[in-house]
Task: inverse folding
């Protein structure tokens, strides 16, 4: 193997190790936050769940707030991906709303680790969301609303207000849903859809 190839292989192994370490730390943090909550958790608790040296944590995250934000952002990104895919498959206004809410609520409950993380830290996650750490009402939802309105699936409404209202309903109902035993995905979906579409129908009468 040439020196250049050896260097490339070494660099590749180093990057894979870094990625594996980061993933291990994130998974350990998700477990710890899910079991004892953000307030009670410490960096030491997280590191103890891994096979890594204690100082390794700080090669990737500066403190527990940074890793918590990373988990919230990763969770939000996957939720947005699934919800947007549901919206883009929708062929009617009801499907646009209903399938998106169902995708979000189902995502919350389908993975035990994600469910525990969100259930234990619902209040803290909402606080991070309010600070913009989890921007679920971003440009992609506004863009999808404009497309749905253009296709005649939804009435012409203020897309910015509509996007934020849609997200607020989902976030708050999702937080309440995970407190129920068992969580009722279909019940939450039906309630959110009827509430939201009822509001749109009312707004369309005044447009």
Result:
């Amino acid at each position: 193997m040439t020196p250049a190839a050896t260097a490339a292989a070494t660099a590749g192994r180093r990057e894979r190790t870094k990625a594996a370490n980061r993933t291990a730390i994130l998974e350990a943090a998700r477990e710890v936050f899910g079991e004892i909550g953000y307030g009670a958790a410490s960096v030491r608790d997280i590191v103890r769940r891994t096979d890594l040296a204690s100082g390794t944590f700080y090669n990737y995250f500066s403190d527990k707030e940074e890793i918590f934000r990373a988990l919230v952002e990763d969770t939000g990104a996957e939720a947005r991906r699934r919800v947007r895919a549901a919206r883009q498959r929708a062929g009617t206004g009801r499907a646009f709303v209903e399938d998106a809410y169902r995708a979000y609520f189902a995502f919350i409950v389908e993975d035990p680790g994600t469910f525990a993380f969100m259930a234990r830290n619902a209040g803290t996650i909402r606080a991070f969301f309010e600070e913009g750490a989890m921007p679920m009402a971003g440009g992609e939802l506004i863009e999808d609303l404009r497309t749905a309105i253009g296709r005649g699936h939804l009435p012409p409404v203020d897309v910015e207000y509509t996007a934020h209202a849609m997200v607020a309903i989902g976030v708050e109902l999702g937080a309440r849903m995970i407190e129920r035993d068992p969580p009722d995905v279909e019940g939450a979906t039906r309630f959110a859809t009827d509430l939201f579409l009822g509001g749109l129908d009312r707004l369309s009468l005044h447009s």
Observations:
- The first helix runs from residue 3 to 40.
- The domain at 1-61 is CATH 1.10.10.60 (Arc Repressor Mutant, subunit A).
